[in-house]
Design a protein that fits this description.
about 180 residues; Ferritin; 5 helices; binds fe (ii) ion
């Protein structure tokens, strides 16, 4: 079944959205690297890799559906943040935006009755729910920690214990993901 042209365009756009997300998280990782929070830097770096994997998943889907891949430029991400909480707040906004994008994509897939695409997008909707929850949980605890350095360092250490990314539920493992 030929992929609907509108859906093809939107899936190509989503490759760009995921790569942009990856770039945003990489910028956050870079910012955290210049702070004492090595754990948050590692968390953001892992998240950047996850987003790249998402882009590649959309890429592979277009290839598998015999559709044309069309890559667009990636915008420069915001490089400076006021605090760990500021970075995670932006992260939540970013994830909510992506959830909306995928929700819209699902709607188009439904309109053109493309059930394979719906299946792919359903996986992404679940993934978004998880990512929003993870970021929201971290934000809640950052709010509790406030300006207290000891509490912030506990959260930082916890963030740093996250697996280095690329792996996870139903995802292809990244190279050297151990
Ligand atoms: Fe993503
Ligand atoms: Fe994400």
């Amino acid at each position: 079944m030929t992929l609907n042209p509108k859906l093809t365009n939107l899936l190509n756009e989503q490759i760009n959205n995921e790569m942009s997300s990856s770039y945003v998280y990489l910028a956050m990782a870079g910012w955290f690297e210049r702070t004492p929070y090595a754990g948050f830097a590692q968390w953001m770096f892992a998240q950047s890799r996850e987003e790249t994997m998402h882009a590649l998943k959309f890429y592979q889907y277009l290839v598998d559906r015999d559709a044309t891949v069309e890559l667009q430029p990636i915008a420069q991400p915001k490089m400076d943040y006021a605090s760990p909480m500021d970075a995670f707040q932006h992260s939540l906004m970013q994830e909510e935006k992506v959830t909306q994008q995928i929700n819209d994509l699902y709607e188009v897939a439904e309109q053109v009755k493309d059930h394979a695409s719906k299946n792919l997008l359903l996986w992404f909707l679940n993934e978004q729910m998880e990512e929003e929850k993870t970021v929201r949980d971290m934000l809640d605890r950052l709010k509790l920690a406030g300006e207290d350095p000891a509490s912030l360092l506990v959260l930082d250490r916890e963030a740093g214990s996250r697996p280095s990314g690329g792996g996870g539920r139903g995802k292809p493992g990244g190279p050297g993901g151990a």
